TrEMBL record:
This is Transcriptional regulator. It comes from Streptomyces pharetrae CZA14. It comes from the Bacteria. InterPro entries: TPR-like_helical_dom_sf (IPR011990). Residues 1-11 have a biased composition (Polar residues). Residues 1-20, 89-125 are annotated as: Disordered.
Length: 480
């Protein structure tokens, strides 16, 4: 087993300007050149958050070698040239590693800590740049997103958007200038995060996502205004990052993957700027989940491994258990049964250590039901329908009744596993239970799963109960 520890990419000597890259920019401004990079990325199906600051960092030599997404874009823009021709340093020397395998080589499973003793998470870049997320995103994308979340150039806050009524669609009626903010504003922000999570647990994401934009803008307005005390500033950073993750989850669950990716990136940037390891681990946790759902299993594995390296010193076995499950989901997506089983074994062993005072507040959803539900998804991805159905059924039975969305999700997973496992009559029964819950739950993810189950059951219309399920599902789809 080889180590996958990632060493820092920061050089010990002053950066050397990249004159070759500057020459390629020519007479275009950094902003114009960044726009050309983004256009080139779209041409080849890549996603990069390039702006003028990124171009400046490349030309100054601060970015000695781009990540793989940027590499593909630059080589597309300048065919026939190598990274060295573009003024970059060979990747192996930048990362402090020997030659890597090809991009198709699965990542190793070693989770050796990549930090030296005393190193803070703020200066740590555990996320392997082989995957589309840019390790320098804390600067480039953060500024772009920050401007999008702000209501204007001056520091104004929609105060009502963080109040107890909270999630009004356009909470801009009560605006006041913000100079320096205190502990009461940080408490309001934390309450907004809890409220959004509670509503999501009960009703799902679809109806909440747009309404959560105002609290998010308010959060970053507060953060931009600054705080009267350092402790309050830390709470504001943490609260804004957690709110970005919550809003990202609402986008994720409602099928807006690009929006979710941006919100998670903003949370990651906020965590790194504040040196908040717990927030950074949470951001990587959700990034891994999103990558799995978006069909990027290698990225899911790397993000989950990064989260585990960051979270290990936090002392929460339950958090480490959940992160191991995120990794297992990535291995399952890669059809790596051995890797998946090893991660699942770790997740179960860590879970059995029980809760602790170090468990993050946001993990209140993670109990036996979620453990079983995530394991069901792994077996489903591996095509082991019988085992997947067993775990999904257990998850639905164990779930706390107030987590209505999760009950619908686990039952939808059960219906799909039963259908694909050749048990159409049982699948129809489970599918009908989900349809009954959709009056209370608005989740595009659940609806997509149910639509897939309906397609699988179409050839089995004559089986007991299947026709009734298909007819009711079709009616619900027309109504929606």
């Amino acid at each position: 087993m080889t180590s996958s520890a990632v060493t820092s990419s920061q050089p010990s000597r002053p950066p050397r300007p990249n004159l070759a890259f500057r020459q390629l920019r020519g007479r275009r401004s950094p902003a114009e050149f960044a726009a050309a990079v983004r256009r080139a990325a779209r041409e080849i199906g890549e996603q990069v958050s390039c702006d003028a600051r990124y171009i400046g960092r490349v030309e100054s030599g601060e970015i000695r070698c781009p990540n793989y997404a940027y590499e593909r874009v630059f080589l597309h823009m300048f065919p026939g040239r190598t990274l060295t021709d573009l003024g970059f340093t060979p990747r192996s020397s930048v990362r402090g590693r020997g030659a890597r395998g090809t991009a198709d080589t699965p990542p190793t499973r070693d989770l050796s800590p990549a930090r030296t003793p005393g190193e803070t998470c703020a200066g740590f870049e555990p996320y392997d740049p082989q995957y589309p997320y840019d390790p320098h995103i804390d600067h480039e994308e953060s500024d772009v997103l920050r401007r999008a979340f702000m209501t204007g150039g001056s520091a104004t806050v929609a105060a009502a958007s963080l109040g107890p009524i909270g999630l009004a669609p356009e909470a801009t009626a009560v605006e006041r200038p913000v100079r320096r903010v205190g502990a009461s504003a940080a408490s309001a922000l934390e309450d907004a995060v809890r409220r959004i999570r509670l509503l999501d647990d009960r009703h799902g994401a679809d109806g909440l996502y747009r309404r959560a934009a105002a609290p998010l803008r308010a959060a970053y307005a507060l953060l931009d205004a600054g705080a009267t005390r350092q402790a309050t500033a830390h709470r504001l950073h943490s609260g804004a990052g957690e709110l970005a993750i919550s809003v990202g989850w609402l986008a994720h669950d409602s099928g807006r993957f690009d929006d979710a990716r941006s919100h998670y990136a903003e949370a990651l940037a906020t965590a790194r700027m504040a040196g908040d390891c717990a927030l950074e681990a949470h951001a990587f946790c959700n990034t891994a989940f999103l990558a799995r759902d978006a069909g990027r299993p290698r990225e899911a594995v790397r993000a989950a491994q990064a989260a585990q390296r960051i979270a290990r010193p936090l002392g929460s076995p339950r958090l480490m258990s959940l992160l191991a499950l995120r990794e297992a989901g990535g291995w399952a997506g890669l059809a790596d049964r051995t890797g998946c089983e090893q991660a699942l074994t770790r997740a179960q062993a860590l879970f059995e250590r029980g809760p602790s005072d170090a468990d993050p507040e946001w993990m209140s959803f993670y109990g036996e039901a979620e453990l079983a539900g995530l394991e069901a998804q792994c077996w489903s991805a591996l095509g082991d329908w019988q085992r997947a159905a067993r775990h999904a059924g257990r998850a639905a039975r164990l779930q706390d009744p107030h987590f209505t969305r999760n009950i619908a999700l686990y039952t939808a997973e059960l219906a799909d596993d039963l259908a694909r496992g050749g048990r159409p009559d049982e699948a129809a029964v489970a599918g009908l239970r989900v349809l009954e819950l959709l009056d209370q739950v608005q989740s595009s993810r659940v609806q997509r799963m149910l639509a897939g189950t309906a397609r699988v059951l179409l050839p089995h219309r004559r089986a007991t109960g299947v026709s009734a399920f298909l007819d009711r599902h079709a009616g619900a789809a027309r109504t929606a």
